[in-house]
Specification:
Layout lengths: L1 E12 L2 E12 L3 E5 L6 H9 L6 E6 L2 E2 L5 H6 L2 E4 L11 H12 L7 H4 L4 H10 L15 H13 L5 E5 L7 H18 L2 E5 L3 H7 L2 E6 L2 E6 L1 H6 L1 H23 L2
Parallel strand pairs: 3-8, 3-9, 6-7, 7-8
Antiparallel strand pairs: 1-2, 1-4, 4-5, 9-10
Helix pairs in contact: 3-5, 3-6, 5-6, 6-7, 8-10
């Protein structure tokens, strides 16, 4: 079933066209990566889907419902979670407290007094932390964690809204290579196990080729290729303008990993 559809999205800033007739679809449980060189329109496209930007024309459909131009909070309430290139957490709070606050916000109980808020949704928060492998760190201040662990907590925070669609902006940014592979495999397992669609932007071609079901390539605001990783890797235009030898090596590593 099609979960997300972008139809001929256009966006310009002054005389600069950031997105031109961008169209794609994302199914339940599918992971779609948006890649391209700097200035390709990845962030613009991503933000039009998430509500941070309204397109000049075109539509964004979530499970068939038109969500074009709705603000991020409204988009979130409709079942869209998001993680950011720089993790968005409360560093002075515990790991558990961060996830509890996400659950409290999702359930519209942010006006509860602090003493009561500390007891709200504790079990649900622990269950989410267990899902991302962070339950053992629940009582630690999040500011003490390694950055890779913070990104796992951020994933738990995003999952607190029970999303149908997860938007991930550079999910592995700032992480060590081994941490990147672990996080992306975790995301893939959760997405496919629960039927959550994942749209992500990423510069790490190892992560893209190893975990994306399909890849959308943008250059100067236009889609130049879309398809499974091997098909995109073999595309001569993609090789010329973006991937080059780095993409070839990443594809080979992903293929070797998939076959043990």
């Amino acid at each position: 079933m099609t979960l997300l559809a972008a139809e001929r999205l256009n966006k310009a800033f002054g005389g600069v066209v950031a997105a031109k007739d961008v169209s794609f679809a994302l199914a339940e449980g599918e992971m779609l990566a948006i890649i391209g060189p700097n200035g390709a329109g990845k962030s613009t496209t991503f933000n039009m889907v998430g509500g941070q930007l309204a397109p000049d024309s075109g539509r964004v459909l979530l499970a068939g419902a038109d969500i074009t131009g709705q603000p991020p909070r409204a988009v979130c309430r409709l079942g869209v979670g998001r993680t950011f290139q720089v993790a968005q957490t409360f560093l002075s709070m515990t790991v558990l407290g961060n996830v509890q606050m996400a659950l409290i916000a999702h359930h519209g109980r942010t006006r509860e007094v602090v003493a009561r808020a500390e007891a709200l949704y504790r079990n649900q928060a622990l269950a989410l932390l267990d899902r991302v492998g962070m339950a053992a760190e629940a009582e630690r201040p999040i500011g003490e964690l390694a950055y890779g662990d913070v990104k796992r907590v951020e994933l738990a925070i995003a999952l607190a809204a029970s999303p149908r669609l997860l938007l991930m902006d550079e999910p592995t940014a700032g992480m060590a290579p081994r941490e990147r592979a672990g996080l992306m495999q975790l995301v893939a397992n959760i997405a496919r196990g629960q039927g959550i669609g994942v749209l992500f932007t990423e510069h790490d071609m190892d992560a893209v080729f190893a975990h994306a079901d399909r890849i959308l390539v943008l250059v100067r605001g236009e889609v130049i290729a879309e398809g499974p990783p091997e098909q995109v890797r073999a595309n001569a235009e993609v090789q010329r303008v973006y991937l080059g030898q780095s993409g070839h090596r990443a594809a080979l590593r992903a293929r070797r990993a998939a076959h043990g």
